[in-house]
Amino acid sequence: MNNKIDKNIVIGQFISNKIDKQRTNNEVGEELLQDLVKDLYQSTHNLKIPLYILTNEVETFDLPYIHVYKQFIHEKYNTLGIYFIRWIMTYEYISAHPEIEKVVLMDINDTEILQDPFNLIEENKIYVGDELFDLSTYIISSDSTLDYVHDFLVDNSSLQLLNPGLIAGSRAIILEFLEIYMFMIDRSFYNGNISQFGNFEMNIFNYIMYNYFDDRIKHGRKISSKFLHFEEKSGSWFKHK
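Structure (tokenized):
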């Protein structure tokens, strides 16, 4: 395996043998991964952008511009759902590779790159997906979370819902986000309230973005297409369903 890491990369995650609350297919294997990632891969391949997939099972993938790595995490985190585990895997990987300069984190099964964003990314900005809902929407209000996160989301329910299926920025700002996330996870293990974490990371993601990056967030139609509109044409950097 070629261990050289490109400086500007797209990262996705593929976690099997754990329940995915949004989907029903939780099989293991390279064939499933190839099916899930085909649209994203085609878009990155067309632009000659390297795509890195972090996984807990699959280790091989014989196609150009795609690299699959088995990423180990501490066994204590295995009690969490996949939407939390994926950011732990990503934190471990990016932390271990200082040669990375800019990175885009993308859901592997419902996103595509429409134009190369790397020359457009500003050093101290974080670029994220969004939805045409606010923080009172069902996926937020119905999912359990830490008490202080819940209180913030209720008090700020009119803010626009940000979506972690697309996150881009310099290595420094992406690590800043992931380090805050890891601190919240580890502190919850220490405090004994890790069971408050629900099925999805939407609550924590919006809490972190609005509390720590409010003046550095960039989102909207320049960054991503309208979520769930399946637009055939878009001037955005990314397509999200």
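The longest strand covers residues 160-170. The chain has six helices and nine strands.
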